[in-house]
Amino acid sequence: MKFFQFLLILIFYPVFGQNISVQTNFTPQELIEDILMDSGCISNVNVTNAVSGNFSGGDLSYGYFTNNNSSFPFANGVVMSTGRLSNVPGPNTSLSDDDAPNWVGDNDLEQVLNVQGTVNASIIEFDFTPNANQIQFNYIFASEEYQENDPNTCRYSDVFAFLIKPQGGTYSNIAVVPGTNTPVQVTTVHPAIPGGCEAENEAYFDRFNPTNAAINFNGQTKTLTATADVIPNTSYHIKLIIADEKNYRYDSAVFLEGGSFNIGANLGEDLVGENGLCPGEVYSLSSQNTANTPQTYSWYAVQENAPDILLASGPNEANYSINQAGRYKLVLDYGNACIAEDEIEVEYIDFKEINNQTLLACDTDDDGLSIFNLESSIGVITNNNTLYKVQAFYTSPLNAENKSNPITTTINFENTLKNQVIFARVETARGCYHICELRLETTENPKTKINLINCPDTEGFVRYNLVDATTQIESMFNAPGKRINYYQTAEDALKGENSLPINIQFNAEELPLILFAKIENATTCIGIIEVELLAAPQPKIKAYEEIVLCEAVDEITLTTKLKPSNSYRFLWSTGETTPQIKIQEIGEYWVEVSQTTSIQEEEFICKKIKEFKVIPSSLPRLSYELLPPFGSGRIAIKASGTGSYAFAIDQNQDFSTQSAYTLSLGEHIIYARDLYGCGTASIKVNIPGFMAFFTPNQDGVNDVWRLQGISRQDPNIEYVLIYDRYGKLIHQMNPYQYWDGNYNGKPMPSNDYWFIIRFKNSRSFKGHLTLKR
Fold first, then answer.
1. 389 and 512 housed in the same domain
2. Angle at Cα 122 formed by Cα 117 and Cα 128, nearest 5°?
3. Same domain for 145 and 82?
4. Of 617, 637, 667, at which residue does a domain stop?
5. Largest CB tally within 10 Å, which of 36, 309, 598, 711?
6. Residue-number span of the structural domain to which 438 is assigned
7. Strand 283-286 and strand 172-173: pairing?
8. How many CB atoms lie within 10 A of CB 544?
9. Which helix or strand (DSSP H or E) is residue 697 part of?
10. CA separation (Å) from 723 to 132, 150, 302, 751, 769?
11. Where does a domain end: 292, 323, 346?
12. Which helix (H) or strand (E) element contains residue 241?
């Protein structure tokens, strides 16, 4: 248990009336033997231990209660609490939150429930001997820790257990959720808590208590029954325990119904619903848990609003055979005021609602043979009654009777005869069965076809929305709300396999194409019709074209390359409506071409847009640059303009986009051609070099030093400087001039000299030459 915050909320509830009352003047022996049991069926009852909180004023944590004409379900009984007994009665207006000195928990409880840290344990232990092989008693668990709409309900719970063992044996807990081994606690039995947890075993939760409830606890379970199988005439020990967990806060209590601790006759589960008896079946009723032999067995037919009818009675009537529906009761009299009884409801399955049925399937060729989904008929055969199930389908009634050679292809069964009859074996859980006929018939297939026609997209695909076909089908067959699915093959349609999505596409080259539309209601195929997918022709024009407008040309023509026709309509971005137009400016243009086609007496218009990009181009303005090292003959061609260019050397052919070349000394012609067709331009170039030596001896050979392979007005070289070995400027000249080996009119001696060629782009080249005399 944990500490919680409290909200005081005023809520109006229906008036519950009186509160229960409690008493402490019963001894533990009296509480067990006289209040809880009060039966001659249990002997040797002996209370061996009782533990209560040590409260001031003589108050206890267990005692006797009576409902005091209140709404509490039990008339009287024993209550055990983790707080004061005086705080158990209602109204539910205060928190039961008690503690007492040295009030500890219980080790057996902790071990069996696998919990730790229990405190404030109320305990009553007793021995007893049953004279049958089952004991039972009724109880209700209530707790302050039930808090409506509070997530704490999902987290915290006090704990209790009813531990039973044979003498010398080990304990087992019988205070569990019915049909499970789950201990009954706040956290295991509750409704859904918003923001906290889902419902858990809600069927066993009774209610959250209002302020005027008969007990002072926030919530309680429904009446539950603790049951244990025992060995007759064997001594057993029971330990009833309830304790707080972790701390004393938020008390809980368990109420044991007075007189409910007893042995029980057991006729077993009611034979109703899926466990009902088969038509004509004779069934023998008998008690399933009598070990000691009763003195008398008495069988009754229970009557509503009338005395029960005695059917048989005597020491030898252990069984009673029935062949009629009704409610039956067995009373076992063991003597000494020990009486046990049980009732059982019996129904007979009559299969009146199971009738012969007809299953329809579509038939694409009207030969009476088709594919049937036998399982789709199950709901009709069983009338959707969950008491029945179709065990299998058979091709003959004899096979159905013997459950031999069942049909295995129940989803895609192919009949072999027109209007073939097969047989369904309908069973209940107990094995009762009835055989009904299932007639396999085919519907007359509609002799019609619908078309879906669309235009291809820019990628050549034709897209269809099958809702368009559904609309046509519903109109033709007056079938709104019917199930319509589409398939690529008739076989898939018959089988109901591989249905197509609503939005589909096909390459225009695959068309025309036939699909199959299957029209069904809940259980029957109404028809399968063909849906033909067609593609309307689209204008045969390119989607994009790039066109060049040359600088020297005034206008060009943009054309769709289509001839004027009543089938075509043209709309240009310029507003013109002809197959072609003339333009004078670069930019982007488009034309929308509409083509009208008549298909099956219906006109379809497909449109396609062609985009034009008009780009500029021109003849190049040519120049070139000499690349180092000087005299290598390497040049880079430079072409400026709006076009893209290819180049050729010395002849107007064999063009290449390469712009760097190595040429021989002397004059060359560079040709540049516009790749967009705007023409060819040319330029002359001179590839320069220099003399490695000269001999100014007036013999007419190499008498002067000059640059080689240049014209008088070289476009690249600005001037040439010549130095002696000491760095003294000896001579400066233009690129077409020469040096005669003199300085200030005087011959320079034989030696190595240095020169610098200065280019107009500010680059320079350094080299040396030799003067020989």
1. no
2. 120
3. yes
4. 617
5. 36
6. 357-442
7. unpaired
8. 11
9. none
10. 138, 106, 143, 11, 10
11. 346
12. strand 236-245
One-letter amino acid of 644: S
Two tokens, residue 1 = 């248990």
Query: Is residue 438 domain-resident?
Result: yes
Burial classification of residue 198, based on how many CB atoms lie within 10 Å of its CB (0-12 exposed, 13-18 middle, 19 or more buried): exposed
Name the domain count of the chain.
7
Does residue 6 lie within any of the structural domains? no
- Decide if pLDDT at 27 tops 80: yes
- List the structure tokens of 730: 């000896």
Q: How far is CA 147 from the centre of its chain?
A: 35
Q: What is the pLDDT of residues 289-312, one digit of tens each?
A: 655 688 899 999 999 999 999 999
Query: In terms of domains, do 142 and 250 share one?
Result: yes
Tokens of 348: 């007979």
Using alpha carbons, list the distances in angstroms from residue 696 to 709, 722, 728, 752.
Answer: 21, 16, 20, 14
- Asked if 200 and 212 sit in the same domain, the reply is yes
C-alpha span between 81 and 55 (Å, rounded) = 13
Q: How far apart are CA 171 and CA 747, in angstroms?
A: 136
Give a yes or no: residue 12 inside a domain: no
Residue whose token pair is 């219906």: 602
Evaluate whether 622 touches 636 at the Cβ level (below 8 Å).
Answer: no
Give the three-state DSSP class for 273.
helix
Cis peptide before 512 (omega within 30 of 0): yes
Residue given tokens 């858990």 in the structure block: 200
For the stretch 462-471, pLDDT in tens is 999 999 999 8
pLDDT tens-digit series, residues 305-352: 999 999 999 999 999 999 999 999 999 988 877 888 888 999 999 999
Is-above-0.85 flag for pTM? no
